[in-house]
Amino acid sequence: MFGKINLMINKWHQLLKMPKFDQAWHDNDLADELNEYNEETRLLKKWSELSDVVYTCTRGRWSGHEIAFPFTWWHFMLGTIYMIPKYSGRWLFFRSAGKKAGATTDIREVRNPKKTYKLHTIAKKYNLDPKTFQAICERQLRYWILLP
Q1: Neighbours of 46 (CB within 10 A)
Q2: Of 1, 24, 123, 132, which has the maximum CB count within 10 A?
Q3: Is 117 exposed, middle or buried (0-12, 13-18, 19+ CB in 10 A)?
Q4: Which CA distances in Å does 132 have to 83, 90, 102, 122?
């Protein structure tokens, strides 16, 4: 059963087509996510942070690296249940915002759109006006349902 779940997650990562990085990048990303997970005490936020750990591990594996998941199989499953809608929602959110902003390529991002500095970073990466992109994202956030 675990093999089928990994296959499904790899297909999902293939759909998102996020950039692949070297082992050190993924190791550093995992260390950051584990710190955030360990610092969180509120139940829903802890679940969200667990999904970030699962995302980081599975993205690293999809990128071709040996990334060990640091918790139990149950933690992995629980994090996966939250991860897929959380990151899929963000990915779709940015694709939509990018089209509205006139991006010449599909925006492939899964960052938190409620953080202005991240919106500006994304806008610059895709050669969009940061203020315009921010305004589009803020309008979308009024009706777009995203998991924290």
Answers
A1: 15
A2: 123
A3: exposed
A4: 29, 18, 10, 12
Residue 115 identity: K
| CB within 8 Å of 147: residues ≥ 6 apart | 48, 82, 85, 86, 89
In the block, which residue shows the tokens 């936020």?
Answer: 45
Q: Is 0.90 surpassed by the pTM of this model? A: yes
Contact 90, 144 (CB under 8 A): no
Task: Determine the Cα–Cα distance for residues 52 and 38; give it in Å rounded to an integer.
Answer: 12
